[in-house]
Every structure is written in structure tokens, then in C-alpha cells.
Write a structure and sequence with these properties.
With 256 residues, the protein is of the alpha+beta class. It is 45% helix and 18% strand.
Amino acid sequence: MNSIEKSIQILNYLSNTKRNVGITELSSKLSFPKSTVHRILKSLLSYSLVIQEKETSKYKLGLKILEYSNSFYNSFDFRQIAKPILKKICTETGLTTFLTAWYNGHNICIDSVTPSQKLDTHHLFVEIGKEMPFHSAASAKILLACQPSEEIKRIINEKTLLKYTPRTIVNPKKLEKHLSKIRESGFSICDEELEEGIKAISVPVKNINKEAIASITITGLSKRISGSNIKKFIKILVDSAQELSGMLGFKEKNIS
């Protein structure tokens, strides 16, 4: 194994670890001599790829990594990498599939795919560029549920809870409890809360920092999203969201 490969392994270990790491641990976990680890870290430090904490002499990823990350994310359109996944979900479910992004407390539909054979003749609420109501749309509820509790309370208190259908939750306390259950389950269902006769299921997409930055949603007539289909659809969505999240650097498990 050459120096470049060893450097990559050290950077990968630091990336997967939430705390600062010392030379002894890196040597033990990666089976590299301490002298080798020290030499590589010295080189990485000179290029700002790692930072050394003065008090403990331990290391973490440097600001140069963030610079590379920003350049990478600026080099592609999020919708472009998500499109094939949306198309796949649409094909597997036969339902309208769309992508919603979280922008400073707003949930905006940024892309959608409709099935070639439109079995749902009803005009759906979904439109690219449209904000999805956070208290009734599955795509928005899942994103709000993933936010810190202070942010959830702030948004609920600041925004008007419009009643779209008899099933729309307009009581702030009930909505908070509903969002808590969504957070625990990992998915959100809109059961005719936005449009009568229309149901939707949504799951979050997370980035490298484990932040829910978007959601993937399927929607259609309630009769087509019911019974045993719901469990099948949730699995399709979860698997797809994990794939897209992985492209954004999200990892389910980290070294503790």
C-alpha cells in the first residue's frame, strides 16, 4: 500500500469519526506504524487537509476538505442526480413522484415525474416551484419533523394552519404530536389532509451532516395507496432515499 492509499484511509477514518483522533488510535485501527501515521499527518496538515488541536495534539478534518466539498456540490444540479431515482420510483409504483427541498423553513417542490399511463385523472396539488404546506403535505411534514424542536415550534407558531380538508390538522398541539410520531417512524403519510381523495407517502433525503435537506414523495388517488401497497411503497421510497442520501455523503453508521 502506497502513501496515497494510506493518506486516503486516514482521511476516511477521520471523516467517519465524530471526535478528534490521536496518532496512537490511527496506528492501532489502521495497522500503520506510528512513524508512518505521523509523517502522513504532517503532510496533510501542511495542506490544511487536517487540523491539529493544540491542547490534546489530536487531529480532525481540515477546512480544505470543506472547500473541496463545496466545489463538488456546486458542480452538479441536485435535481440531475435525483432524476433517475425519481423515474425509477415512478415506474415501480405507477404514481406521480416528486422531490421537495428544504429552503430556510420553506418546502419547495423542485422536480416531479408522472407515470406514462396516467391512471390518476385528478389534478394533483404538486407543481414545480410551489411551496408545500408544512402541516398537511407529506413531503413538507417529513422535512419539518426532522428539524430541531425549537425550529418546529417556531414555524408552527409563525405560520397560519389553513384547513384544506376535514382531515387537515390545524391545532398546533396536535400537529406537534403528529410530527413527533412522523420523526419516530421515519416516513410521513398525507391521508387526504391536503386534497380529498388524494394520499401521499414521503421520506427524507439526508446529506453528509445527517440533515434532512429534501424529501421524496409519491402521490395519487387514495384507493391506489392503501392496504398492503403502503408497506411496499414505503420500502421503495426508503431504499431510494438511502441511495440518494449516499450520493450526498450520508452514512447510516459512524465510528463512535
